[in-house]
Amino acid sequence: MANKQVHLSNEERFCIEKMLGVGDTLLKIGTTLGRGKSTICEEVNGNGGRKKYKAKSAINRAYLKQYRKKRDCNKVATDRHLSGFVEKKLQNGWSPEVISCRLETQSGLAYASPKSIRKFIRKRSGLERFLFWNRNDHKSGHKRKSTLFLTDPDRKWIETRPLEALYTYGHWEMDFIVSTHNSWVLLVCVEKYSKLLRLALLPNRTTGVVQDALSRILKGYVVKTITTDNDIAFQKWKQLEEVLRTSIFFCHPYHSWEKGLVENCNRWIREFVPKKTDLKSISFELVSDIEMYFNHKPRECLHGRTAFELMMEKECDIMVESLEINFPEVRIRG
To answer: What is residue 7's DSSP assignment?
Structure first.
């Protein structure tokens, strides 16, 4: 008799009890119910045998088995080392998807899917607050218009950038996080392939200061192209190209999505440096901690690897594993 691939119903269990009471064989019971003999045998032997089988007890036992299976027998919950790893990484700002990607390469720990990790979080009070960081709801200020780009016919626009910038290493995007209190800015550079982040806290964004900062933070890295916006700090972009020995391309005015990677990085940096923060008041140590955190945090888009690991592979042709980096100070929702 073929297996129906469905659980026994309550009516079938009562029928089994009655047929056992009149002495019918397991084969006859299975034939009557359209079930295989092995299914009936497993049901009877797992609930007291032929002499002690009771339908009500079997129904209760089957319900509790499915209830525990759905509620408690979560893969993460049943593995002490795995659950400890998940709880620790949630507190470090990792998402369930990032944790799952990292588990694929993490030695000594079992793999768990993002769905299993989220199910574990829902059943453990206090963990859901780590899923969402504070969101910066402050609206940006008025955008000051500039017609400087109109007087520079030699400026190279993003559509002329080599196509290889989309899939090879060494192509950077650049932007500023500004302060409404003073002239201090945070220079943000991110490499498109590895997602490597480089930060510099500057007292202003004059051409000389920006050039010195870029020469310092990009020293030793492959820099094939840089994509940025039409900020006044880059009005001497030809001089900057000579200093960095690279090509600089510009987004179209008010088209910030053309450098979406660095814009997304700015959004995450804002979790540590909220809008309307006086940048002069933050420490260089905090900036360094933010940079280290993002460079050593696994990314789902990198299949569980970190930006530092991928950078070392491309720059030095060696395989390394990122260090355990402390979570910078951030306000967690909850």
So the answer is: P
| DSSP annotation of 192 | T
For β-strands 225-228 and 247-250, DSSP reports them as parallel
What length does the chain have? 334
Are 74 and 120 in contact by the 8 Å Cβ rule? The answer is yes
Question: Is 174:228 a contact under the CB 8 Å cutoff?
Answer: yes
More confident residue, 137 or 42: 42
Is residue 34 within 8 A of residue 16, CB to CB? The reply is no
Q: SS3 of 108, please?
A: coil
Residue 6 dihedral angles phi and psi, to the nearest 5°: -135, 155
Q: Which residues of 229-256 are buried (b: 16+ CB within 10 A; e: fewer)?
A: bbbebbbebeebeeebebbbbbbeeeee
CA distances to 40, 190, 259 from 155, in Å? 80, 22, 17
Q: Give the SS3 label for residue 173.
A: strand
Average pLDDT of 96-124?
Answer: 86
Q: Are 109 and 304 in contact (CB under 8 A)?
A: no
Q: Which helix (H) or strand (E) holds 52?
A: helix 49-52
Beta strands in the chain (DSSP E): 171-178, 185-191, 197-202, 225-228, 247-250
What is residue 326's three-state secondary structure? Answer: coil
Res 150 pLDDT > 60: no
> Cα 224 to the chain's mean position, in Å?
27
d(CA 139, CA 141): 6
Q: Exposure of 173 by Cβ count < 10 A (0-12 exposed, 13-18 middle, 19+ buried)?
A: buried
- Per-residue pLDDT for 333 more than 50? no
Please state the pTM of the whole predicted model: 0.69
